[in-house]
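Students often ask why we bother encoding 3D structure as a string. The short answer is that it lets us treat folding as translation between two languages. Here is a chain of 313 residues written in the first language.
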Amino acid sequence: MATIMAHDPYQLLGVQKGASEKDIKSAYRKLAKELHPDYNKDNPAKAEKFSLVTRAYDLLTDKDKRAQFDRGEIDMDGNPAAPFGFGGGGYRSHGQAGTGGADFGGFGNDGIDFGDIFDGLFGGGGSRGSAGAAGRGHSAAKGANTGYKLMVDFISAVTLAPQTVTLSDGKTVSIKLPKGVETGTKIRLAGKGQAGPGGFGDAIVTVTLGKHPHFRKDGDNVLLELPITLKEAVEGGKVRAPTPDGAINLTVKPGMNGGQQLRLKNRGFHTKAGTRGDLIITLRIDIPDNDYALAQFVKDWQPAYDPRSEMQR
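And here it is in the second language, the structure alphabet:
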């Protein structure tokens, strides 16, 4: 005669029958961390318990199956509950026919060892573990995702310089910033999260762009206010100007006014479309304090024009 093992998923997870999905997930994660086969390779009893709590979790997080179980229509493995107590919540340990030779769903005399299948679930017994999961109609849950925050300096964000993140296990991984990166961008690192019966979850890295003392972000463009001397504004010439890609010699034409803008193409942020924004430079004429020579020049200089003449019309 076959041995029938009945299991209550609520008792296995240590939760009340009316427990919320959040409580169920919390209980499962705690048990999975304690019982996972990867951490208990020399303890087959814990591996078997891990298989059981995983089956319990799978059932209780499926709303339809949980309702069927609560009504007594199915057992913990999703099998129809048989009359007179046959098959009421477990698996057959040796694949033999039950009392009276009943054959439930063709599994009575086919030599299928349910015990071995579930013993090997999620890594405890080789390739047969996947068959157990498939038999329940849905894949096993992966481990929880782990969140990280990454502060990226302004220049690195513009140039898409590689970044590094230290994970919770102490390992450091390199990250390639995506085009179109901005504050709030999320980067997914597959398989770098917590362990679970269906594999590892992911690491989710949320990016924050740092500020810069001179540059500002304006959409895909970068803005820069560049101070020049009065002499440079009047006579023009080459002036040294910073850009996210490195300093350049910028040509200032003679007679340029403060507030005038110069646009340098493809010196801004990389876009999702594969293009780049521009660097927009606004000139600011810098008048020094206590410059005696300049003060004397202006005192003796009589402008031949009125810059506000059009405003008086």
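Translate back mentally: Residues 1-5, 84-137 have pLDDT under 50 and may be disordered. Keep this in mind for the problem set.
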